[in-house]
Structure to design on (138 residues):
C-alpha cells in the first residue's frame, strides 16, 4: 500500500529511505551520539536505533538551542539522515535542516505524520513539492 501526504517543502531535494518515527522527538544533548549516529536518549522508544540514511519523522525538535549541533556533529562523523519530515517546523528544527542540507518537509495541516507513518515504512521525501510518499513495510 502506498499513499501520499502533503506538506510544505522546507529544504529542496528528494530523498528516499526507511522511516524512523519518533513521536516524542529526540533530544539533542544526550539524544544522538555525535560519534555513532545512534539514539542514546535513555528511555526513548527508539533508543539504540541509528539515524544514518533514515528518513527521520519528528513532531519538532526537543531540548535546547544546541539541538542542531548534535545532528551536525553526527553528520561530521559520517552519520546523517537521508531526509526530515517535521509535523511542524520550529526554529531548532529549521536550523538543523539547513545545517544538514538534506531534503525536508514540514508544517502538515490535515495529518500528523508521526501517527500515519510507521518506523520501517519506505518514505520518499520531496522538499521541492512538499510531498511525502509512503510505502508500507508490510
Amino acid at each position: 500500500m502506498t499513499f501520499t501526504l502533503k506538506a510544505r517543502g522546507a529544504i529542496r531535494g528528494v530523498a528516499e529511505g526507511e522511516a524512523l518515527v519518533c513521536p516524542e522527538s529526540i533530544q539533542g544533548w544526550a539524544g544522538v551520539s555525535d560519534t555513532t549516529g545512534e539514539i542514546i536518549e535513555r528511555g526513548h522508544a527508539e533508543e539504540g536505533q541509528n539515524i544514518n540514511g533514515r528518513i527521520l519523522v519528528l513532531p519538532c525538535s526537543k531540548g535546547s538551542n544546541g539541538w542542531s549541533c548534535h545532528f551536525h556533529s553526527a553528520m561530521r562523523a559520517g552519520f546523517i539522515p537521508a531526509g526530515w519530515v517535521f509535523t511542524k517546523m520550529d526554529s531548532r528544527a529549521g536550523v538543523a535542516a539547513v545545517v544538514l542540507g538534506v531534503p525536508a518537509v514540514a508544517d502538515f495541516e490535515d495529518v500528523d505524520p508521526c501517527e500515519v507513518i510507521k518506523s520501517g515504512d519506505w518514505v520518499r521525501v520531496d522538499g521541492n513539492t512538499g510531498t511525502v510518499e509512503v510505502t508500507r513495510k508490510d
